[in-house]
Amino acid sequence: MRSTSGKYRLASGKGSSGSGQKKTVVASVAAKSGAGGAEAVGTGVFFVTIDEDSAGQRIDNFLLRILKGVPKARVYRIVRKGEVRVNRKRVNADYRLLLNDIVRIPPVVVVPKDAPVRPSDSVIQRLERAVLYEDDQLLIINKPSGLAVHGGSGLSYGVIEALRQLRPENRTLELVHRLDRDTSGCLMIAKRRSMLRHLHSQLQQKGQVEKLYHALVVGKWPARKQLVNAPLLKNVLQSGERMVRVHVDGKQSRTAYRVLERFANMTLVEAYPITGRTHQIRVHCLHAGHPIAGDEKYGVDAANQEQKRFGLNRLFLHAASIQFALPNGRLLKVEAPLPVELAAVLEALKE
Known about the structure:
Structural Genomics Hypothetical 15.5 Kd Protein In mrcA-pckA Intergenic Region, Chain A, alpha+beta, Pseudouridine synthase, 4-stranded antiparallel β-sheet, 8 helices
């Protein structure tokens, strides 16, 4: 286990070693064919023995993970035609893999689209410095503000694509959860599917994962206001932009709050999202009458312009810590230090 910045705490608890597991055997999943710009994913028929990390996964999702870059339609076609076999038998796309199943995977040749944009060296270096905690199954970083967690919607790359280039030896890196593009702080990335399943299970159970955020809000947040309970409804505008609002038809959403520090007409609060809805903290702060400083989507333009006097040029929302149980039962708490630019804003407000 490794820590390069921030803090983490590992408490004793129940658990088992998990040693001696059989490993998935994939010798050469992707190799350049050297002919006509095509890419051969697998240079010949190869076989994969399913270990505990992949057991329980649907065969279609397993193939999409193994045959990265191969279009979904092609993956489903080779399953439908019987080119993919499990224990020498044809299976449907919804077949769930069992421990020690032997999967036959044929060579798949595709003509790749434009090569993905490589993140700049500065982005790669920022992410390397942002590592808060690391072991052989999990990576937690202090995500920088302004960097999306994944590419798409006009973005060439995000955190996960950059990390896959930074850690090419970790072929199965997957996001455990998401943070808004402008939010900084603790972001979990699973190195193994078993850890991904474990953390998803924890996130689905209330109270198993404690995520605390620090937010600077406009106005004087009342100390007695310790809970915002308001249903949230997600809309997608014609432009494709996601907007969330409080609405009776929305999903139940609750956020607990605690005042950390007061300034002139500003309050630093700690927010604990009891539920995990899109933009939940931002919309609940707005609903409470105290939008988050620097929030260009849900904030007030005049207030955002005023806050620039104190050097605030981004959303003041930071995932300050995360706490959960590892598969062996031990409790892990990781803390992300407040970014320099946000710490400077607080100092300017004190003056």
